[in-house]
Amino acid sequence: MSKIIGLTGGIGSGKTTVAKLFLTEGIPVYFADDEAKKILDQEETISQVVNEFGSEILFENKIDRKKIAEIVFKNPEKLKKLNQIIHPLVKKHFDAWVVKNQKHPFLVKEAAILFESGSYKYCDIIVCVVASEEIRIKRVIERDNTTKDAVLERLKNQWSDQQRIEKSDFVIQNEDYGKTKLEFYEILKKIKNIQ
């Protein structure tokens, strides 16, 4: 059976950079956040979300991501409700993906909220990607064309690096790509030696 590597880190930490390194090593990666977005566009999900949040979150019969983000990132109860709809659907999709890729000795599940969602419990090894808050904020502002306040709002809804590090097997400091690669290959060597 494949070993599941959970890959996590706060917004802007550079999880995708590390995920791409796993891919270059031929290790399949499941991008949970991307899959969650696709699931959010499915009819079954849309009707559940509309039941919970009302039809004003729709735009052209699809969920307006910006509108729902504004609601949930300011209200932890609403965020919890949304996650209760999305997480079981993502888990079901991930389980099917694992079955499809079971010939690989290792599979990676990349997820920003691996701990918050409880899906870390299904991982054999956890790798956490960290970077200074200053760098993370700068990256997200550039990537999402957003404001510092909006990024800080999202950071408030995620675990701190310290909380993640305490529950992780390995930590990659991702501020300098050259060093990140070196750390990644060191860790990969250790992971491959875990029986």
Please render the helix and strand layout as text:
Layout: E1 3-8, H1 15-24, E2 29-31, H2 32-40, H3 43-53, E3 58-59, E4 62-63, H4 65-72, H5 76-100, E5 106-110, E6 125-130, H6 133-144, H7 148-156, H8 161-167, E7 170-173, H9 177-193
Parallel strand pairs: 1-5, 1-6, 2-5, 6-7
Antiparallel strand pairs: 3-4
Helix pairs in contact: 2-5, 3-5
Walkthrough of the structure:
This protein is of the alpha/beta class and 195 residues long. It has nine helices and seven strands, in the order E-H-E-H-H-E-E-H-H-E-E-H-H-H-E-H. It has helices at 15-24, 32-40, 43-53, 65-72, 76-100, 133-144, 148-156, 161-167, 177-193, and strands spanning 3-8, 29-31, 58-59, 62-63, 106-110, 125-130, 170-173. Strands 2-5-1-6-7 form a five-stranded parallel sheet, with helices on both faces. A two-stranded antiparallel ribbon has the order 3-4. Strand 3 (58-59) and strand 4 form a beta hairpin. It is globular. The model has no long low-confidence stretch (mean pLDDT 93).
Strand order of the largest sheet: 2-5-1-6-7
Give the topology string: H per helix, E per strand: EHEHHEEHHEEHHHEH
The helix count comes to 9
Specify the overall morphology: globular
Helix content: 55-70%
Q: Based on DSSP secondary structure assignment, what is the total number of beta strands?
A: 7
Task: Report, as a whole number of angstroms, the end-to-end distance.
Answer: 12 Å
Q: What's the story with the biggest beta sheet? A: 5 strands, parallel
The proportion of strand residues reads 5-15%
Identify low-pLDDT runs.
none
Structural class comes to alpha/beta
* Arithmetic mean of pLDDT: 93
Write down the Rg.
17 Å
